[in-house]
Amino acid sequence: MLCEIAGVSRAAYYKWLNRKPSSRELENEEIIKEMKAIHKNVKRIYGYRRMLININRKFGKSYNHKRIYRLMKIAGIQSVIRRKKTRYKRSKPQHVAENLLNREFHAEKPNEKWVTDVTEFKYGTSKKAYLSAILDLYDGSIISYVLGHSNNNNLVFKTLDQATDQLETDRPLIHSDRGFQYTSHGFKRRIDEAKKTHSMSRVGKCIDNGPMESFWGTLKCEEYYLHK
Q: Which residue, 212, 176, 208, is CA-closest to 191?
């Protein structure tokens, strides 16, 4: 009945049950056993290259590095240091604006100059949350904010829509960095529909959005890093 449920023939099941592991499989088991011992002894700092050297020395063989790499993945063994960073392909911006704010962070009245950005919060074991906010340079107040689990266009669009809904006759300048959300057609369309002016930081010049960066730093120091 179990064979029928699993979609396996009786003959195939008994062939698997009575099968003896090959010499290569037995050797792999010995290699994995030794790798686990080495991994523990060196406090998990070895990658596959240094593991290869030690395994070859231990067994007096010249194993291929691909085999050691594959067996380490099977055994769940990996180095805890100097892990290769993921390289992201830069996307071409759909819309780019000039740096009209030009670090003139003083505003004479409310809703004259806004700055916006998204920041990341890590929590739990490997979870992330993203906070999008718009700050008024007149008094440093937060006009709108949205918290979510994905750093996507919708997060930024909702933040902008919330802020726009509060406006009556004001048409503020809104400054952002060159994140993919802010250079998208969707963000540009919302800016145009609300008759706002868009300003963007220059490439690699985070100080162009200094007040927003400063706010994130203060927020995290006072309300995030102090708590688990």
A: 176
Question: Domain 113-223, what fold?
Answer: Nucleotidyltransferase; domain 5 (3.30.420)
Question: What pTM does this model have?
Answer: 0.61
Residue in the structure block whose two tokens are 């194993």: 63
The 3-state DSSP composition of the chain as helix, strand, coil percent (nearest 5) reads 40, 15, 45
**Segments in the chain forming alpha helices (H):** 2-6, 10-17, 23-41, 48-59, 65-75, 153-165, 185-193, 210-223
Helix (H, G, I), strand (E, B) or coil at 133: strand
Q: How many Å apart are CA 105 and CA 101, to the nearest integer?
A: 7
Q: Which residues contact 59 (CB under 8 A, 6 or more apart)?
A: 30, 31, 34
CA dihedral sign, ordered 57, 59, 60, 65: negative
Q: What contacts 57, CB < 8 A, 6 or more positions away?
A: none
- Chunked mean pLDDT (size 10), the chain, 228 residues: 92 91 94 96 92 95 95 93 68 84 94 96 90 96 96 95 93 94 93 93 92 94 87
